[in-house]
Design brief:
Length: 431
């Protein structure tokens, strides 16, 4: 058999999607470390912790599924409709109606193979090339934003982002800062007339920033005024999984697209995402599922179905996940203060309002955080450099080279020793 002497040619879309993306590098580094280097201290990635109380519920529910021969067979042998399991979406629509008064039904829901897939579908439905050569983009009102969005567009330059304002809740001498939306910049972007949707994660990955209820309401009003949707990615947020440390009301309106996920509840392996939207959008997502993958996995929907029917799923965040992760966040912040004290490093943490991350700002290093990331990896500490999270900005911003994302959900000794190494390496790089 003759050998192929040259590589195959990829389409322009293929070249873009198959290229070296930030999310590929992140997942590849994490996967290699987990399988080939068990000594690596894993402060990178967005993997949830093994929360004992939650895992006990999952194991109990798995036992129930195994014991029900007919139910197990339906779960493992039959395809669901592309929109999702009818019992699941009907129960979830009913729960959201009853708890929040949202005027929705099963026609407003669609299941996807994870929240990442949901965003991929939505971004490409609402932005890119349109009839008569028109082009629309997705507006990110608050950079930095989730690295996994950056390369999801079929078309190049799909995203445009706004630099945030920075405030200091504890005063200028404090070690806590917070990003807030610069609404003047957002309105200026919208005035260009080429925005197909506004999108934000809440809590924000990578910073743990939670958009306030007032910020969300103002974004929703701006979206309505310009006749476009507002996409709220609640992978960590409300109404579930509820890894939130500040008050935040769940928000939905007919022009709002809400995405949820079972991953951060503790079930990332089930790859179950949920889209709540207008009937037009939900139907389009179901159609994309049918084309791309026939149907979605059933196991995640089956595991949590009784929790949705009873409303228990809304209690898991406040009663189980929030106290667990809040404790880890506080411990890690204490270690940061301990290890950076006296180093000469000008550092600060973003206010930790939700999710699993500390966003570390190192202001006076002579190297970028991408270089620091490589030095840390050599010392068996895996983090995520900040640069890839600032995609879509119209111009270079020095701040984007000064931040690291740290996942504090690992065991205490891993996190503690990892923060110690980070402080040591940063101290070696002070200007």
């Amino acid at each position: 058999m003759s050998e192929i002497s040259a590589p195959f040619e990829f389409s322009l879309v293929g070249q873009k999607l198959a290229g070296r993306s930030g999310i590929l590098a992140l997942m590849d580094d994490m996967g290699r470390a987990l399988t080939l280097d068990p000594q690596m201290r894993m402060l990178g990635g967005g993997n949830p912790a093994v929360v004992p109380a939650l895992q006990a519920l999952v194991r109990e529910r798995m036992g129930e599924l195994l014991a029900d021969a007919d139910g197990f067979a339906r779960t493992m042998v039959s395809y669901d409709p592309p929109r999702g399991n009818p019992l699941f979406i009907r129960a979830l629509a009913r729960l959201l109606q009853q708890e929040f008064g949202w005027d929705i039904g099963p026609q407003n829901l669609a299941i996807t193979s994870g929240g990442q897939t949901a965003c991929f579908f939505l971004f490409n439905l609402l932005a890119g090339r349109f009839a008569a050569g028109k082009k629309k983009r997705i507006l990110l009102p608050l950079a930095p934003e989730y690295i996994g969005y950056a390369d999801q567009g079929w078309e190049p330059d799909m995203f445009v982002a706004c630099r945030p304002a920075i405030v200091w809740p504890e005063g200028g001498a404090g070690k806590i800062f917070k990003y807030t939306i610069d609404f003047a910049a957002v309105e200026q972007m919208l005035a260009g007339g080429d925005i197909g949707a506004i999108a934000a994660s809440r809590p924000t990955n990578p910073t743990g920033n939670v958009l306030t209820d007032a910020e969300v309401a103002r974004l929703a009003a701006l979206a309505a005024r310009h006749g476009i949707p507002l996409i709220l990615d609640n992978a960590y947020g409300a109404p579930f999984p509820g890894v939130l440390f500040v008050p935040a009301r769940p928000f939905w309106a007919p022009h709002v697209i809400l995405t949820l996920s079972l991953s951060k509840l503790g079930l990332p392996g089930t790859r179950t995402g949920i889209v709540i939207a207008s009937e037009q959008i939900a139907s389009a997502v179901a159609s994309l599922t049918a084309v791309a993958g026939l149907a979605n996995g059933t196991i995640g929907q089956q595991i949590v179905l009784p929790w949705i029917e009873s409303g228990q799923i809304l209690e898991l965040g406040p009663k189980v996940l929030r106290p667990f992760y809040a404790g880890k966040a506080a411990a890690a912040a204490g270690w940061a203060r301990e290890f950076f004290a006296g180093t000469g490093v000008d550092w600060a943490l973003h206010a930790n309002e939700g999710a699993f991350f500390h966003w570390l700002w190192l202001k006076n290093l002579r190297i970028t955080t991408r270089e620091l990331y490589e030095r840390l990896k050599a010392r068996k500490v895996l983090t995520v450099p900040g640069e890839p999270f600032f995609f879509g900005l119209p111009e270079e911003w020095p701040h984007q080279h000064e931040c690291l994302r740290l996942n504090f959900s690992r065991d205490a000794e891993t996190v503690r020793s990892g923060y110690q190494v980070i402080a040591e390496e940063a101290a070696q790089a002070v200007r």
